[in-house]
């Protein structure tokens, strides 16, 4: 491999290329990054008509002691369903309540992770015709072991009343549940029952362990909140930003009908912008353009959708005195968010009204926010688009060989048109398993192609990002978790090899010879902000099944500069190309660092079979 460090052959990689894509899929947010532990906190998941299903809430008691139903008596206008509990038993007398009382419990998202010495804030809304005495407890998965408990006692809650309790856990159980029980006869209504750990990232509501997995990638941008989630199977179930801001208990929530689960929209428009800011990543907002999988708004009637998006932009970017900027400021963020990119729809290019609707959004946004870059859904990789756009989306899900060969996909993309945003890429099908080394290697090769074509590819993100292993709606995914554990698939770890690339200098590099074209390589140089030293990083994918002895010759270095050459080799490989990580063995396929034997202008490196080396 010949690497030329001279300035003449170098080109700056944009600061924006390697980022992430967060979609509410696989419980990435609800039951994932969003730390809310109660599933279906507002009893709305069973639909707006009552009586309704309260799943996953369950009843503690039998028909002689308790009748549980739902009605539409909530104090919240946008989510009217409340839970009604008619307690027939009492603390004494003929119909005495069982020990521990009767009531309801919520198992969270396949168990709540309650940890010893940590504090949990329980918030609930309650109403009753008489005095109440309710035990609020975090218990083990079978309900027997009490991890923390407190009593809510009130003489008069004839109007809906907000109650807050802090519970400190005395032991740990990763599959805990919340129980609300009583031994007092009467009628009680509950609504908007929440359990949040106090310990979330900066108190912003993000689960710490999952947040750090993202932070460790140092993403330049975060695309959100979908994907198909943004479109909906039907427009009535699409993500509507105005329904997702403000106090959590007032949000209506919605049924994400593409991925087939309810979300309380705890992660709403504000939280996504906040997440981007917390990650130091540029937000890329994908919005619905009046098109779902099955229905569309005619271009002649799309204006309310356009206005909704203009309002959402003002919410993000307007000053604190503007109508929507003041709403943001009241939510605790007076400074505008740094929103510079929006995507007009998702995968809608072929739809009947796409171009018409797109142009309405494009011109309205361009007029009000000329600094915003707009992303079209139409593929411009081989010919120029027939409509104005700053970038266009390119999505690719294919087998490993196809993704590997797509490292040349952008070599001939027109350089005089919009830039490419590879907003979704992944190896899928048999080659990926639930996250194989093979998939990661093909994707690494693809990203090396992205890096080499970063004069035209401005952004790239893997998809999907997260999966709660209890409800896998898409396979594979970069980060796998349950209530308390998390690991990265090889595709997650592969992305670590590109962390320094944003804003780095791409060097000229040539592979000669390249037996059976199974190698692909790139070289970058960057100055570390930590020690102010200049580093050179060569990345090579060996997609073949035999080891390769690679000679790396570096030319164009200044005098005495070999001292500063990086002397480590980091490899992502394993004994079997289909190897995966798991909760039992989360580090089976992770980058492994060793010292290089030779350091200088010429270096000999052995590339393991099926490996990514840098
Ligand atoms: O990443 C999963 C899905 O794949 C996205 O929602 C969609 O954009 C694509 O079809």
Automatic annotation (TrEMBL):
Keyword Signal: yes
UniProt-listed InterPro entries: Alpha-L-AF_C (IPR010720), ASD1_cat (IPR055235), GH (IPR017853), Glyco_hydro_b (IPR013780), Glycosyl_Hydrolase_51 (IPR051563)
Location in the cell: Secreted, Extracellular space, Extracellular matrix
Top-level division of the source organism's lineage: Eukaryota
An example Gene Ontology molecular-function term: alpha-L-arabinofuranosidase activity
Protein name, entry field: non-reducing end alpha-L-arabinofuranosidase
One Pfam family recorded for the sequence: Alpha-L-AF_C
Similarity-based family: Belongs to the glycosyl hydrolase 51 family.
UniProt EC number: 3.2.1.55
Cross-referenced SMART domains: Alpha-L-AF_C
Positions of the Alpha-L-arabinofuranosidase C-terminal domain: 423-611
Transmembrane segments: none
Keywords, comma-separated and alphabetical: Extracellular matrix, Glycoprotein, Hydrolase, Secreted, Signal
Organism: Coffea arabica (Arabian coffee)
Chief place where the protein resides: secreted
UniProt entry tagged with the keyword Metal-binding: no
GO BP, one annotated term: L-arabinose metabolic process
Reactions performed catalytically: Hydrolysis of terminal non-reducing alpha-L-arabinofuranoside residues in alpha-L-arabinosides
